[in-house]
Amino acid sequence: MSIVDWPEGERPREKLLARGAAALSDAELLAIFLRTGMKGKSAVDLARELLTKYGSLTRVFAASQQDFCKVPGMGPAKFVQLQAVLEMSRRALQEEMQCGDTLNSPRVVRDYLKLLLAGRSQEVFLVLFLDTQHRVIASEELFHGTLSQTSVYPREVVKRALAHNAAAVILAHNHPSGITEPSSADQLLTSALKQALALVDVTVLDHFVVAAGQTLSFAERGLI
Question: What's this model's pTM, rounded to 2 decimal places?
Fold first, then answer.
């Protein structure tokens, strides 16, 4: 059955207008993005198939162009639209962080990091560089691959902090395994970076681990 044949209160667009975006399921939100279905399948059907294939919205967003375009009903145009939506979301959150104290906006920081890091197939180490009022100056992915104290070089982090004239930093990396619990290597790395940055009067405010759409804060755990 086509979506236009559904009761009006159950159609994703009408439901969003009447009850707000938060009332929609992941499949319904994704269906609005897809706009149309294909022969024998509604946009909601296609959305459900995408979620079944990838397991979550986060993994749909992280899909490569080649893999995404192999899904029946998808293609380069849909992939481009999806990437544009994601980038607009990232930029909106970054603008919000640049305007206010990140310590007073923990949700914004978490949402931004999840958009950047969740669903990535390899480990990525990212640093948010902050000014004296804890507003974001810049966000940089500095290292990729298996992360350890030997693969994330403190001198490079210090170098970038000085280049941005940063007063503080927030560290973040992802766990492709889906487990947010920090490893002993994560804790050793954090300690090494904290000591190195302290030598140039840069404070490490927090270190986030992002996995499976969740975030863990070292500061909240008392590990900073």
Answer: 0.71
